[in-house]
Amino acid sequence: MLETKLIQPFLESEIKMEERAGLKIKVYGDSVLRKIAKPVKRISDEHRQLLSQMAEVMYDDSGIGLAAPQVGLSIQLIVVDIGEGLYKLINPKIVKRQGRQSISEGCLSVPGVCVKVKRAKQVWVQAQDENGRFIEFEAKNLFACVLQHEIDHLKGKLIIDYATFLEKLRIKRKLAALKTKIKVAKL
Question: Which of 37, 92, 95, 160 could bridge 127 with an S-S bond, Cβ 3.0-4.6 Å?
């Protein structure tokens, strides 16, 4: 397993609004990012196709995780790959946490912003795979961090919610610029 380090592999200086695989990354200011995602009741071919498209978008943007709300869909799907293989997870939930780690995190939906987040060092996750099989696994270090980050998206939570008051002051202008760009993009 990879050791925890300062992670910034997917920070972007510009918002990528172009469409890939039929999906667009939603950025800070878009209301879908704050909604609680609904569980998937019956897994279909459309869900499997969406997971593959999400993985394509994640890889295209040099990300290591992506949740369905980040592409505008308020359903409980995530993809994760920290370089050890792709995980496509449906209705993931953390059932146990252990230890502490603090990692500087970026997010495809909050480009250009990095926040130090305290999370569990080890987690146990239950989910369904793309074929509907129930799975349970343990994740440590970076893998645990990314899973917690993506599952946060399913709860409408962003990395900026973990920022200290001083960090929020520091990133305030970047966040305002993102909101302005999202408003202009919707026009």
Answer: 92
